[in-house]
Amino acid sequence: MLKSRLITAFILIPLVIAALFWLPLSGFAITTIVICMLAAWEWGQLAGLKTRQQRIWLAVVCGLLLAAMLFTLQPYQRDLHQYQVEGSLWAALGWWIVALFLVLSYPASAALWRSSRPLRLIFGVLTVVPFFWGMVALRQYHYESDHFAGAWWLLFIMVLVWGADSGAYMFGRLFGKHKLAPKVSPGKTWEGFFGGLLTSAIIAWLFAVMAPLAVAPVTLVICAVVATLASVLGDLTESMFKREAGIKDSGNLIPGHGGILDRIDSLTAAVPVFACLLLLVFRTL
Question: In the chain, count of helices (H) and strands (E)?
């Protein structure tokens, strides 16, 4: 298992970095739509869709929705202050606040949504759609003056989340004694949580020193800390839905890693929350 995880990671990481920096905006948006469609396919299982055909339709509808939203942007598509983008990012902030209460009060909170397939589908929409717009909004950051500025921001948030996840795993294995959310994800500990925060703080400092991120250090730290906290929440939220669905992995598309949602669960929260703070709260655009 570990060998296949490492091999897959060594293949995927260079591909992700190449896509961030070398794909044109249209190609990047299409690639992100495909990823979101695969995520929607897997969410169908969490929402209680029993047949393959139902899940295929969910993925297709998700792709058509995102494409329609993309095509309804004004001709100057790199103006991010349009209702499709802003509305999705603010919705993400609201949804993840709700998700925090659902996770903290689980399993009692499951009584509110366990038997409601439409509600679980809505949760999926609020997870996948803002993730798409967060990715697109960050990639288009200052695109006119620097084609790679947004790619650096996306690389930052991805490395931040991956680093926090790795730091949490290592600190949890070495020092973990106190469970973080035993009813949702028994393997996570408070020691791992703080280890992940420490790791993300180091990564944020390194990027601030070495990468061309033109933003005030205080703004960067605030956005990085909140995004890291959101990434933990994204992971716990998917774990909660998987526990209710009675499955270990959301899928098996990525050898050794499970499904698409298993790999991007933290990013589905961190990316739109980070984009909302960076672009709408602090108005760094």
Answer: 10, 2
User: What is d(CA 157, CA 140) in angstroms, rounded to the nearest whole number?
Assistant: 15
**Smallest Cα–Cα separation from 128: which of 36, 61, 38?**
36
Residues ≥6 apart with Cβ < 8 Å to 177: 189, 191
Tens digit of each residue's pLDDT (9 = 90 or more) over 216-230? 777 888 888 899 999
Q: What six digits make up the tokens of 28?
A: 């990047």
Q: 217-225 — which CB contacts under 8 Å span 24+ positions?
A: 219/278, 219/282, 219/284, 222/277, 222/282, 223/274, 223/277, 223/278, 223/282, 224/160, 224/200, 224/274, 225/197, 225/200, 225/201
For 129-269, list the strands marked E by DSSP.
Answer: 179-181, 185-189
- Is pTM beyond 0.85? Reply is yes
Which two three-digit tokens encode residue 191? Answer: 């020691």
Q: Residues 41-99: pLDDT tens digits?
A: 999 999 989 899 999 999 999 999 999 988 887 655 555 667 788 899 999 999 999 99
